Amino acid sequence: MNMAFERISRTARHGFRRSSSGASARTTEKNMLCERASTRKYCSVPSLEREKRNNNLSYLSSISKVNHNSFWSRGISITPNYQFPSAERIVEESDSECNDPKYPGLEATRPSEKPRVVVLGTGWAACRFLKGLDTKVYDVVCISPRNHMVFTPLLASTCVGTLEFRSVAEPVSRIQSALATSPSSYFYMASCVGLDTDKHEVYCETISNGGLSHEPYRFKVAYDKLVIAAGAEPLTFGIKGVKEHAFFLREVNHAQEIRKKLLLNLMLSEHPGDC
Would you say 144 and 189 are in contact if contact means Cβ atoms under 8 Å apart? Predict the structure, then answer.
């Protein structure tokens, strides 16, 4: 009985010593691995070359040197300013923009594009020209404060109700369908405020939008051919007060104001007690 107990205790002590030595060996190996990992983390390029010579690692020879200057072309880092001299030129010219204003708009056409014809106005002459223009040969840009043509001889009939206002106005996009369908043809609801025949540019300003807070802005349109059909101002023959108080019956809004004034006077004349 005592001999059996002694044998069991001897076996237990022997196993404990083996487990302790194994744990210590694993701890020592773990510390060595951590130390080696930390050493490799902060190693330099010569140490890699030394390891390649010592261990004969052939895969290290396939590692090529990285050219960090080529990263910008692949979008990995910020694009250097020296690659685009125009960026520096824009910064240098920013101070002179106040003296030489640059308007946004349509630039000059390229040799591969169709020539651009700019038409000022949407009156009888301008709309007749737009209707007969061959849009397969030219791109067209129309600039006018109104987007329709008015049949002025019929305006008198709209004042008394014989005709409706929509019967005497035709949208310019119906007269020339390219203004609504062609991607290179445009209609700008604006007024022409300047012209440069040397640069072939027309300077325009947007019209007011009925008293809203939006301020008009200016833009330019380059042209290859220019048609000026803006019409003429009505004559007042030097009579004072005509321009301020008279309706010249040249636009649809003139006929609307006359009709509204006529109906108002008729309603006021039926009030009792008025002579």
Answer: yes
